[in-house]
User: Fold this.
Amino acid sequence: MRRMVVGATAVMAHHGSGPALAAIQSYAQIMGLIQAHSATLAFVNAFWVVTIVVACLIPLPFLLKRAPSGSTGTVSALLETSVTNTTRVTAPRAGWR
Assistant:
């Protein structure tokens, strides 16, 4: 790492930066490289985690039991109940404030 800093500082100083500014620029450039590399590693790790989770979930539909034919599920029963029990909203009277 020290060789990278010295080399980058020399290149920055050769192109017109002062010694202090060249050192700051070289550290910033190396930090950018480190951040790009860490972002790539984080993406690869997240990709593998998602891959493993999906691979574990693939057999799930095959392990579930079928619902009996002709029966309504609880979700559809709840939806039918909520639709039939709605109250009618009336407009306010003309003299009411």
Remarks:
- The radius of gyration is 33 Å.
